[in-house]
Design brief:
The chain is α+β, with helices and mostly antiparallel strands. 69% of the residues lie in helices and 16% in strands. It is built from four helices and two strands. Strands 1-2 form a two-stranded antiparallel sheet. Strand 1 and strand 2 form a beta hairpin. The longest helix has 25 residues.
């Protein structure tokens, strides 16, 4: 929960609530961390993995459509620019 909260830039309490909602919906499950009895691990369930794959497939279809509209070169530039922004925002608080 702590690592997820830090990566998402939200409080541990907010992340814990989000994980509880996802757990209740069947997308994730909490398991004991064998290395630290105080910690829990959060992992995807089969339903969560299926949702993730559906989201990736949707993303690929959108990228393919945009690539047809703006061209491969521009799509690669867009992807590189978005990756740079993600990296800068993610590492900005470190």
């Amino acid at each position: 929960i702590t690592a997820l909260a830090r990566a998402s830039r939200i409080t541990k309490q907010s992340m814990s609530e989000m994980v509880s909602e996802l757990e209740n919906a069947g997308y994730v499950e909490r398991t004991a961390d064998p290395a630290d009895s105080r910690a829990v691990r959060v992992r995807l369930t089969p339903r969560g993995r299926a949702y993730g794959e559906a989201a990736r497939e949707f993303s690929r279809s959108v990228e393919a459509e945009w690539g047809r509209k703006i061209g491969t070169r521009r799509m690669e530039q867009l992807r590189a620019t978005l990756e740079l922004l993600r990296s800068e925002v993610f590492h900005a608080g470190e």
